[in-house]
Amino acid sequence: MEKQCYCCMQIKPVEAFSLHKRMRDGRLNKCKECHVAYVRKMRDKKTKAELQQIRHLEYLACIKTGSRSRSRSLSEIREQHDPVNRKISALRHFHQKRANATKPTELDDLVFEEAVRLCHMRAASTGIRWEIDHIVPVKGRHVCGLHNAHNIQVVPKSWNEKKSNVHVIEFLPRTGY
Fold first, then answer.
1. At 28, is the secondary structure helix, strand, or coil?
2. Which residue intervals of 20-82 are DSSP H helices?
3. Whole-structure pTM over 0.70, yes or no?
4. What is the pLDDT, as a whole number, of residue 125?
5. How many domains is the chain built from?
6. Most Cβ neighbours (<10 Å): which of 27, 47, 52, 138?
7. What is the DSSP letter of 142?
8. From start to end of 16-165, where are the E strands?
9. Is 91 part of any domain?
10. Angle at Cα 122 formed by Cα 116 and Cα 128, nearest 5°?
């Protein structure tokens, strides 16, 4: 099997490339010879500014040769490095990820329907009101639970009102400790 080095553009056997876990094929895109030359070149430079300038020139050379292309415009790149915009995009990504994680599944719907039936059955048999409660509160000072099947319980209304937004473990009295 062969692979092309993106520095010297030569096609070499795969064994001529160093192992790299994060690459798709498990090998670095530079051959070992080019990588050694690059590392030596970088060690000779002394300041961070010089290293950045060299990398930028190499990047521009790659763009000119066509081996690399800009996927974003310079304004988009500058916008991404703006700390405020980075924070906004990070929060947007976090909320999208959390929203996708909390979409109810078929199991969640089934458990919730069963919990509603159980509330009505217990209310009829005991004469007191029962409610569906979250074991870990959905919103609280130190916790953030989810509205899913693993976080639902049926409890008396008075107990649920006393508990408020407290984790069940904190609410229950400690015995035998």
1. strand
2. 32-44, 48-65, 74-81
3. no
4. 94
5. 2
6. 27
7. S
8. 17-19, 27-31, 130-134, 152-156
9. no
10. 110
Task: State residue 103 phi and psi, 5-degree precision.
Answer: -65, 130
**pLDDT tens column, 58-116:** 888 888 887 777 666 666 666 666 666 666 667 777 767 766 666 777 888 888 888 88
| Residue 87 within any structural domain of the chain | no
Which residue shows structure tokens 């996708």? 100
| Domain containing residue 157 | 106-171
How many Cβ atoms from other residues are within 10 Å of residue 146's Cβ?
A: 16
104: exposed, middle or buried (C-beta count within 10 Å: 0-12, 13-18, 19+)?
middle
The answer to whether the beta carbons of residues 35 and 29 sit under 8 Å apart is no
98 is a domain residue: no
Tokens 């988009």 sit at which residue?
76
Q: What is the pLDDT of residues 117-155, one digit of tens each?
A: 998 899 999 999 998 888 777 766 655 566 677 888 888
Residues 44 and 38: their CA atoms lie apart, in Å, by: 10
Residue 62 in tokens = 């790659």
Range 170-175 contact pairs with CB under 8 angstroms and sequence separation of 24 or more: none
Q: Are residues 160 and 111 in the same domain?
A: yes
Mapped onto helix, strand or coil, the DSSP state of residue 140 is coil
102 close to 108: Cβ distance less than 8 angstroms: no
Q: How far apart are CA 168 and CA 173, in angstroms?
A: 10
